[in-house]
Write a structure and sequence with these properties.
The structure is a homodimer of 381-residue chains. Chain A is of the alpha/beta class and 381 residues long. Chain A is 28% helix and 30% strand. In chain A, the strands form 4 sheets. In chain A, strands 3, 7, 8, 9, 10, 19 and 20 form a 7-stranded mixed β-sheet that branches. In chain A, strands 13-12-11-14-16-18 form a 6-stranded parallel β-sheet, with helices on both faces. Chain A is globular and about 75 Å long. The two termini of chain A are 28 Å apart. Chains A, B: Residues 20-286 form the Enoyl reductase (ER) domain.
Chain lengths: 381, 381
């Protein structure tokens, strides 16, 4: 173990025991001395992303959770179904830190990177729901002058995902995109990028309010999956844009299959003659989220044979795109942090508040438009 | 239109009218004179493949079919649901020939290919459920000495599909295979190829009888999807073979997802540590058939993020593999037509018998192991 650097801080931890009990708590830990190439960041802002909730809860259901402890040191317990334990065998009894990304101020710096002391930086890579985070200096992004930790907290997951969609589109030979849950923070970023870059984007939303929000931001193609003319409107938008690649945050239910079927209908309208096996134009939908955790269901007859469904995950996708592309995308995020990649939060909360029943219910509901920002230095009792 | 060559023959035709009536019948047509590079083949044997049934019936259901006409000139009529017509708009009112492949004797030959007269050849490319078939000589395969039309009738679809699976496996960087409906003619061929080439193959069957059949043919890994230990047996076989690519003839229901989940379970057992998003080993299942025409259903949690599902179709797959590979595969089929690629038929029938109720019900049932061979020169009244 590294020697302590004299600082102590709280970390939010998630632990699932072998007998199937999830426990969430704040742990006071001594912050280690940084190595020569490392820094200690005092975390000032870190968002609650859907991807954090998976690590936080595992397969436990929030409905039956018990909220105990004190206001300053809450403890949440929930039981995990025995059948779900084998899939997470490797995490049982381990105390896992949570939180993919955040930003703050460098309060300790190793010998090789002392110049970073006092700088504001953004960090990605886990364990950010904490007051302090040790990190390799090379993995951090020094925030530009005039950028606050609030501005930089969500610098990685959503911006790099939105840019990753566009780069994947280019890599795989498509020319336009479909996106679901399109009114999300991520969706709004993608819309801005596509408008700026002249890329056709079909935004699928779930309410007229979300449609109005995106149209207000200049979106050209917005279809409401709840509207009675959804299929026809989607097919028309696909015909106009020529989109043959979709990114779906919903995952469960019929939506991904409906997108493939509408892509195929658009392709058949554009083709001449009868092809028993359908269009030979390849249609692809990647499932990158789990807003609907139920099973995915699709019919094959309306989609022909030239189709693919697959998982899409940011880190492997970036790896496939290559280091040079990733560096280019990071540069764009830094330059446009307060414009294209600005995030909007419903509420700011402390680490302790992140474990209160009403807060947890709100962020675990995964409703588009609800987004929380944790300020780990706030309300420490 | 080309001038007639003096021959007349029957062709089985499928027509769906704009008002939604399917009509199957035998049409007497004048055989055209072949062009300089063409031949006329007197078709002596042509199989009923699952892929033919799609063209034959379209979206019509056989249950409500009416069987009329005479014994020598049967006519089958069935109604097509109005909702299904838009997807097949391009074939409405067209009289479509049926039958992907077959073999016979060259009875007319164009000026450039007179040397083929009297030869036995195999043909692929549609319109084979007929007494005569005009074809480009270059598209035909001259059958080796001692090979009958019965031996050569199923020379293309199943053999090239089985070989195509293996080549796709190599092209996409996998090292072993999973196959469903593995006791089919195609499955038996694939098993022979994998045994000969030393490729790990997990055969998924639906009954103990099918398992015994494949084991009798030397299959090393056979799992029965109806057995209570299916998931455990499949995972064990995937661990032993390292198969991360599956070809699924069933299509509907949970099977493809079960295969992906078992591949992921095998990959997680082999990995160390806890990875919230699952294994990063890519797992792929291609759906190439529709034995179950119901919706495809899968759960995402057990399969992680590194997975793909997609359609697989022989002709585009061969195109992707390239002309040199296709030529090599054709050469292997020719050399092993009476061994590896021998087909087994349940019954031999005439063109007229192919439209009888009991025959149609048998081949449309798509039961593994049932396979019909049409002899178009037989029983012509």
């Amino acid at each position: 173990m590294a020697e302590g650097c004299g600082l102590n801080g709280l970390e939010l931890r998630s632990r699932i025991s072998r007998d199937g009990v999830l426990e969430l708590s704040l742990q006071a830990v001594a912050v280690p001395e940084p190595a020569a190439d490392e820094i200690i960041v005092q975390v000032e802002a870190t968002p609650v992303n859907p991807s954090d909730i998976g690590v936080l809860l595992g397969p436990a259901a929030l409905d039956a959770a018990e909220f105990g402890g004190t206001a300053a040191r809450p403890v949440v317990r929930a039981s995990v179904p025995a059948a779900a334990l084998s899939a997470i065998a490797a995490r049982l009894d381990a105390s896992l830190p949570v939180g993919n990304e955040g930003a703050g101020t460098v309060v300790r710096a190793g010998a090789d990177v002392v110049g970073l002391l006092g700088k504001r930086v953004a960090v990605f890579g886990g364990a950010m729901w904490a007051q302090y985070r040790r990190a390799k200096a090379a993995d951090c992004l020094v925030l530009p002058e005039g950028t606050t930790p609030r501005d930089g907290a969500s610098w990685y997951v959503n911006p790099m995902t939105a840019l990753g969609f566009v780069e994947t589109m280019r890599q795989e030979g498509h020319t336009a995109l479909v996106h679901t849950a399109a009114a999300s923070n991520l969706g709004q970023m993608l819309n801005s990028i596509c408008l700026a870059d002249g890329i056709g984007l079909v935004n699928i939303v779930r309410s007229p309010q979300q449609a109005a929000l995106l149209r207000g931001q200049g979106a050209r193609h917005v279809v409401d999956s709840g509207a009675p003319d959804f299929t026809a409107a989607l097919t028309a938008a696909l015909t106009e844009t020529g989109a043959t690649l979709g990114f779906d945050a919903v995952g469960g239910g019929p939506l991904a299959g409906q997108i493939l079927a509408a892509m195929e209908a658009a392709a058949r309208q554009a083709a001449s003659g009868y092809h028993h096996y359908g269009s030979d134009r390849h249609k692809q939908v990647y499932l990158y989220g789990r807003l609907n955790t139920g099973p995915t269901i699709f019919e094959r007859a309306p989609i022909g044979f030239a189709w693919g469904l697959g998982g899409w995950l940011l880190m492997p996708a970036l790896k496939k795109l290559g280091a040079a592309t990733e560096a280019r995308l990071r540069g764009r995020v830094t330059a446009e942090l307060k414009t294209t990649f600005a995030s909007h939060y419903t509420a700011e909360i402390s680490l302790a508040e992140a474990l209160r029943p009403e807060t947890m219910r709100a962020y675990c509901q995964r409703a588009t438009g609800e987004k929380f920002l944790i300020l780990p230095q706030q309300g420490v009792g």
